[in-house]
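Input (Subtilisin-like protein):
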Amino acid sequence: MKLSLLLASPLALLALVGAAGVEAAKPSGISAGPLPINGVARKAAMDGSPENTQANGGQGFKSKKSGQAYVPRSYIVEFDESKSSSAAQKRKEPHAAFHEHMSKRAKSSYHTRYEFNDPRIFLGMSVTLDDDEDFHALFDGPDVKAVHKNVLHSTPAFDPVVVSEGFVRNSVGTTKVAGQKSKRAPASSWTPSGAEAGVKDVFTPHVMTGVDKLHAEGYFGKGQTVGIIDTGIDYTHPALGGKPGGKPCFGKGCKVSGGYDLVGDAYTGYNNPIPDSDPFADCPGSGHGTHVAGTVAANDTFLGFTGVAPHANIKSYRVFGCGVSSASDDVIIAALEKGFFDGVDILSLSLGGPGGWQEAASASVASRIAQLGTPVVMANGNDGSFGTFYASSPGSGFPGTAVGSVQNLELTGYRANVVPSTYEKQYVTYLVGQVFQFNGSSTLEVYATSTDPEVKDDACQPLPDSTPDLSNKVVVVGRGTCPFQTKFANVAAKGAKYVLVYNTPAPAAITYVSSNVPGQQAASLTREDGQFLVRHFAAGDKISLDFSNQLAYTQADTATGGLMSDFSTYGPSYELQLAPQVSAPGGNILSTWPVALGSYTVISGTSMATPFVSGSYAVYRAAHGGKTSPNTLRTIFGSTGSPIKQSKSASSLLETVTKQGGGLINVYDAFYSDVSYSPSAVLLNDTEHFKATQEITVRNHGKKSRTYKILHEPAGTAQSLQDDSQVLFNTYPVPLTPNYATPALSKSVLVVPPGGSAKFSVSFVPPAGLNGKKLPLYSGYLHLSPVLKSSGKSDKFSSLRIPYLGVNGALSKQQVLDDTDELFGFNLPALLTPDQKTVITDDEHTYSLADNNTQPAIIYRLAFGTPFYQIDLVHANTTFKPTIPIVDSNGTYVSPGRRDTTMVKRSKREETLSSQVTPSHHKGGKGKGHGKVPPSHASKPKDGFSDVKTVGTVYRESWLGRNSQTGLAADYSYLTQVVGDTVVLPGNGQLEVPEGKYRLLLRAQKVFTKGDKESDYESYLTHVFTVKK
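Output:
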């Protein structure tokens, strides 16, 4: 997987692209929702002068991991729909009033990207400023409710591995069977209908989830249309409706029945989107959407590959360009609205990035569309390595469905025979999409780059000079520490053409690999196979592999098959909602790919799990009247799944609900469930807001009585933070303990009459023996198990598992600002010199603030999410008392309860950091409202937060998730902000910073606080610096 381009500062991208407008041509056929403005840059004087500027430089990478990047100087302005008295006013007046406001307040030109005019979903617009000094004018606009940065998102998936037809045939198999009837169908108003002729389905992800049983009974999602927001689609593919000879089929009567390209081939996320009515895409970098579409609805009658809902239709909404591309929040919002107004039955988004707040722009739009009745299914992200509280956006939008990933139970590859055949293994399976090709002999001697089968950093450095010529050998390399491509390059330097990479220990999931070294072929091995070869090589045994076998072979993944994927992101959201709510097969998934790029590939990611759930929803809805609500779907699929253990060990605990939600979905059980319940999950909150006792209502929609025994199934309690730190989270696998909550039930047996309901209450006692400062997350399920009949036979109805989640700690007390030296070797936050290479530890520095070369910067790291933070310029003699002490005159940082640490000039590690930090310049603004964030000084003169006397505001932002802890800018690990020559006044207007002595004041709001008191914030004051013009 390629990492997303994440810069150190949310604003650092400004240095890459310069001042350029980003505009979108008005797409035809949109009568409501987003209204892009034809390429005209609006001047402050409103003269309508046309501009044709093109941004260049910045790039975001589609990747398994996500960081946070932004469209330079681009913002989404949300209006308060309650301020307008009529629907017509709500649709038109706020935009016109805002344009009039900007014509008077803005110093420079700005460009309108989209206008959103449906108050039910989103009333607002997105703009790009020519001069970031106009940032503050956005907040001052009439009826402005909130201003959001225009976040860029990537597609959470690993790199694809193209596979052969033989690979596909070995992985799937479908034959028609006589109309098989269900053995379980209950006679009720929820009885499914519309069965067609059934087929036998042996595709492993379908078998894992019961989809195969529904296909055998003839349920294929006919009549449902899934809107896929992604990279576009190749509708010439025979599995996606393409006609013989590669002829396309698009529009009415075709599988891909509609859609829209919102961006065009050349779109990168930073330049001008150029929309058109055709979402076709088969250029390099565009295959992700075709893979997603195949998982939903493929129907390849030649090779036998089918999606979950092979008779459903697709509408494709393209939001990524060719090659390396990202998708901005406003484009995603436009696509969501377009799909909604086009009347799709389900919206599917396999994209996202770090967030975790429901209030983020695209997350809030997804939430509102789901509230209006259209299910929205979203990837929960591929940032599992970063630990808990790292939920994705827009996946955090509720009541949408966020999806986690489960590893495929089986792996397909090719057998290589061991030579000689006298060893304990006669063959190994090399996991690759196509057989290795040879110019000469296909039998090669094994060479291992390390004789240690437990090596952790194999081939991460250049191989020693004593290494022989590897061109006629098959090279065995251990996975770990460095990227695959680094290993491939190092062995290629010694001539290696054939490389086998064996996996790291479980629970790390195996993944298919490919090499970008010209002429080199690579494949994966299971750890067992790899260590077998290494042991014999180390013992001096002559061992070779014969690759002449050309037949694909499928075997069980005994190490991690059926477990949660290691990359699958942990929740919960910062509102303590479950994220994910469900999980589905997403690890090593076969699906369609653009014909020009190979036709079929294997990929891993929550990107692959998401369309599996979307297709499952389509199959369910098609047979149950077509209008099942998002809440009902999420509850049914979230309660009929199978909880998953953390590992294959017999003693393993159940994985925390914050990683798996309701577990692996059981589509068959969900399909025939005629029982619902509310609430959808028992959310116990944290210790300060603990909801110990809750009542659950179970409704029986069938015609037979249902009797359940109520049991408790605890999951392992996850310790979020590391033992010796309050700012560093445990990474994957997050350690679990058997410290369980204790539920007291009002009844142990629940009888639910036909067509009626029954209630029970549960009172929880949190687990004992936990350190609340480490934010332990306790979770599990209330298991409603069917009671056996007196005959000893069970009724044919499913168990239900109601998930619960609580935090044994107080989120309002969780440290938000990292004040340690644990990540970089110097204490954070810190004031940096303009070149951002030296930490300032005295009060003797002088700057003119004229440009980036004379502007100091503050570096800081969010150790936890924050609803709002603000950076102000204050006078040097301020009497404000920050919560984080400053470095004293001796260069020593004294933090309550922590050791003293000496500040030093940046070490080599720090210089590595600075090389990733691009100086950026963003003048913050003063606004009239931040949604739920605190108001300005002038708005509430008695407000504790606003009582602090400031010169003006440098910058502020709302709804941020925590930073990662890798120390890398590409992983959204820290933030920087420079001090410009202009600040925003507490009232209206701005001030050019006069000569004088100043400090920066950074304040970050704690979670679950109102934000109106200074005690709701953590704060830091920098050293004094002098401004001299």
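The first strand starts at residue 34 and ends at 36.
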